[in-house]
Amino acid sequence: MTGAALADTREGTPDTAPLPPEDPGKPPGLGDLLAPVRGRLIAAVVAQAAAAVCSMIPFIAVAELARALLASGGPDESRAWAAAWTAVAALVARLVLYATAGVLTHHADADFQLGLRRRIARHLGRLPLGWFTENSSGEVKKAAGDNISTLHHLVAHTALEVTAAVVAPLTALVYLLTVDWRLTLVALLPLLLGAYFFKQAMSGGEEVTARFFGAMGGVNAAVVELVHGITVIKAYGRTSRAHRAYDDAADSFSVFFRDWIMSTTRASTSAGLALSGPAALLVATAAGTLFVTQGWTDAVDLVPFVLLGPALTGSVMGLAQSGHAVQGGLQSAREIHALLAAPALPEAPEPAAPGADGRVELTGVGFSYDGATDVLSGIDLTLRPGTVTALVGASGSGKSTLARLVPRFWDTTAGTVRIGGTDVRDIDPNDLYHQVSFVFQEPHLLRTTVHDNIRLGRPNADDVAVEQAARAAHIHERITVLPRGYDSVVGEDALLSGGESQRLSVARALLADAPVLVLDEATSFADPESEAAVQQALSALAAGRTLLVIAHRLATVRDADHIVVLDGGHIAEQGTHAELLALDGRYARMWALQQKGAAR
C-alpha cells in the first residue's frame, strides 16, 4: 500500500457514495449495490443477447442451406449462397459482440469491486470499536473480502451466461415454430421435463444458500481464531484442542454439504439427462420420423430440428450453475448490506471546530458496552495542556475504556467529553483525529513500507519530516540498517522487535503532531534494552502536549502531574504521587506491592 493509496482511502471517490435510497417495504438487494455500474451491465447484456442471436444464425443458415439444396423443385442456388454468407456474417458479428459484452462486464466489475471495497473500508473506519469485539475477524473478512469475490463471477460472467442461456434457445424456438409448430411442441418436451426436475433440485435454494454461507463463515472464523491464537495455543500445549474447534467447524460444513448434495442428486441427474443433447436429438429424430412416415411433414424439414433441437436444451444446463451463482450473489449482497447497515458513530450535521489549547474535559462521563452494565460512571476529569495525567488501577477498572473515549473510539452513554471546549461528538472525525494521537499498548503496523507506516497520519508528509520523526523516536538508526531502509516492508524485509515496533508507532504519532496524546502502556512490549529508548521517544512526543497515560507499572508515572486511580469504573483517588502516598489508600497499597515485587 502506497501513501497515495492510503490517501485515497481517506478522501474517497464517487464510488464510495452512500447507498441509494431504498424502499422501506423491500429488503436491500443486489440491485442497490450494482447501481453505480448498472448502465454498463445493461449495455453488456444487450450486446450478449445480440451475440446469442448471432450464435444461432449459423445453425439456422445451415438448415436453410439444406432446405434450399434439397427442395423438391431442385436446388435454389441464390438462396443457398445467401444462407452461407449470412452464416459467415453472423459468426463475425457474434465474435465482436461477445468480446464487447465481456469487456464491458469486466470493466464494470473492476470498478464495482473497487468502489465497494472503498465503501466498506470507509464504513469500517466509522464503526465503534465495540462492533469489532462483537464480530469475529473471520466474519469481517468474509463480508469485506469473500463476499465481494463471490459477486465477481456474478457481475463479470453470470449475467452474460444467463442472457445467452435464455436468448439462444428462444431464437431457435422462434425459427423452429416457422418451420413446423407441431414438431416444435414435441421438441419442447425434454425442456419442460428438465425444468421440472431442475425446479425440484433447486427447491429451498435460498435457505440452503444461507446455511451454506453460514457454515463457511464458521470455518473462516475457526481458521482466523486458530491462526491468531497459535502462539498461546502452542505455549500451553493446547494444539489438539484448537485443532478440534477447526475440525468441528469443517466437519459441520462437510456434513451439511454432503446432505445437501445427496438430497439433490436424483433430481439434478434426471434434469441433466432430460436436458442432454442426445435426449433432445432422440426426441427430434423419433418424432420427426413419425411425422414423415405419416405424411405430416416433409423429410427436409427434419434438418432444422436435428440441428437446433439440442440447442433448445443444451444451454439451459448452464442455468443450474448460474442459479447457484445468483443465489450466492444475493446472499453475499445481503451480508454486505448488513455490514454497511451497522450503525456508525453519528456525525454532527454542522461540525464545530475545537479550540487550539488541547484541554480535555470529561464531565459526568458514564459508559456501558451492552447498555445494562456500567463500565464507567460519574467521571469528572480535566486534562490541562502541557501536563501528564496518568490512569492507574487494577485490571478491569476501566482505564483503557476511559482513554478510548477521548479519541471517540466509542461514544459516552452519559456525560460529555470535550477537547478545546468542544464536545467530541460535534467535531468532524477528520478534525478529531488531527487533535488526538493514540499509541496503543500493542503496536499496530501495516504490511507496507516503513515510510508509509510512519506517515499514516500525514500521508502528504515529505521524506525529511518522516526522517525527523524517526530520529526523535530513536528508530532512525535501526531503519537505516534494514535491507531497503525506509522502503522496507514491515513483515517482509523489516522484521522489528516489540520495542522497535513501538518506537515506529511513536514516530507515527510524532509526525501526526496532534495536541492531545493518549498512551496505552506504551512500554509494555519493549524489551529491557529498548525500554529506555522508548521512554526517550515518548518524552519527545509528550513535550508541550496534553498527555493521558495508562500505566500498570506505577514507577513509570511517579513524576506525572496528575495521577487518577480508577476502581470499578469510578475515580477512587487522584493527586500527585506524593499526595496519593500521603493518603495511604489504594494507590499507596499498589505502590507498596509493586515496590516489594521489584525488590525480590
* CATH fold assignment of the largest domain: ABC transporter transmembrane region fold
Distance between the termini: 48 Å
Number of helices: 23
Radius of gyration using CA atoms only = 34 Å
Quaternary organisation: single chain
The largest beta-sheet arranges its strands as 6-7-8-3-9-10
Strand content: 5-15%
Give the helix proportion (percent range). Answer: 55-70%
Largest sheet: 6 strands, mixed
**CATH superfamily membership of the largest domain:** ABC transporter type 1, transmembrane domain
Extended strand count: 10
Whole-number total of structural domains: 2
Give the low-confidence spans.
1-28
Task: Report the principal-axis shape.
Answer: elongated
Structural class: alpha/beta
What is the CATH C-level name of the largest domain? Mainly Alpha
Mean pLDDT over the residues: 78
Describe the structure.
- The chain is α/β, with parallel strands linked by helices and 600 residues long.
- It has two domains: 19-341, ABC transporter type 1, transmembrane domain (ABC transporter transmembrane region fold); 360-599, 3-Layer(aba) Sandwich (Rossmann fold), CATH 3.40.50.300.
- It has 23 helices and ten strands.
- The chain has helices at 3-11, 30-33, 38-69, 77-126, 129-134, 137-179, 181-187, 189-201, 205-228, 230-235, 239-274, 277-293, 302-314, 318-341, 399-405, 429-435, 450-454, 463-472, 476-480, 498-512, 528-542, 577-583, 586-599, and strands at 360-368, 374-383, 388-393, 414-419, 422-423, 436-439, 516-520, 546-550, 562-567, 570-575.
- The strands form two sheets. It has a six-stranded mixed β-sheet, with helices on both faces.
- Helix 3 (38-69) packs antiparallel against helix 4 (77-126), helix 6 (137-179) packs antiparallel against helix 9 and helix 9 (205-228) packs across helix 14 (318-341).
- The radius of gyration is 34 Å and the shape is elongated.
- Mean pLDDT is 78; it is low at 1-28.
